[in-house]
């Protein structure tokens, strides 16, 4: 089927679990993106429940767009969530990939790109030094904000994001993302996933679960190079084969 110059093919698979079937299909067609609906309900303990959308985030080797809202995109604001502090030893390239993906989507849809960076106003190491006076605390907060702003400026500046669309928020990452998404009216939030200890799992854990449940907009999760969980290449479900004389099951 073709519409507006876009070619669409429909494929039905008898396979399980569903997320493995999707990953296998994406590999066969060399997909650049997987688009799926968000699982209804909360994502508490999503990794233990093997929810389809969560497993796609964990196992798919390509970016995954989880759709939460209805309707078409009309010049949408796109919010890229970055972390120039490189917590969890995140690759430097991942933030660049997040910005590139956000910029590409915003340009294709005639929208605008915003960037958010959540930072801690007071380093955790400061609390181990004893009781902090108000003056010392205010100074630490000021220096922390200045450092975070400089990192965000370097990163977003290279991507051509104007200062008015850079959002520096001193809150937990999930809260900061929700706040920035609400303030900008974002239709899509772009985040990154990390591989850890060869497990190829999301490292953002609770942040991802909270964002999936609380964000009113769609979520695009970008993967670093080499990401992808172990998914068998051969289907595990029953197969339906169409033949000239009829149809058979095996």
Rg from Cα: 21 Å
Task: List the total number of helices.
Answer: 7
Order of helices and strands: EEHEHHEEHEHEHEHEEE
Report the principal-axis shape: globular
Mean pLDDT comes to: 80
Number of strands: 11
Main β-sheet description: 7 strands, mixed
Question: If strands are numbered along the chain, what order do they take across the biggest sheet?
Answer: 3-4-9-8-5-6-7
Give the strand content: 15-25%
- Helix fraction, binned, reads 25-40%
Low-confidence stretches: 197-204, 242-250
Gap between N and C termini, in Å? 30 Å
Summarize this, please?
By secondary structure, the chain is α/β, with parallel strands linked by helices. It has seven helices and eleven strands. Helix content is 35%, strand content 19%.
Which features would summarize this protein structure in a list?
single chain, globular, 250 residues, two-stranded antiparallel ribbon, 7-stranded mixed sheet, alpha/beta
Describe the 3D structure.
This protein has 7 helices and 11 strands. The protein is of the alpha/beta class. 31% of the residues are buried. α6 packs parallel to α7.
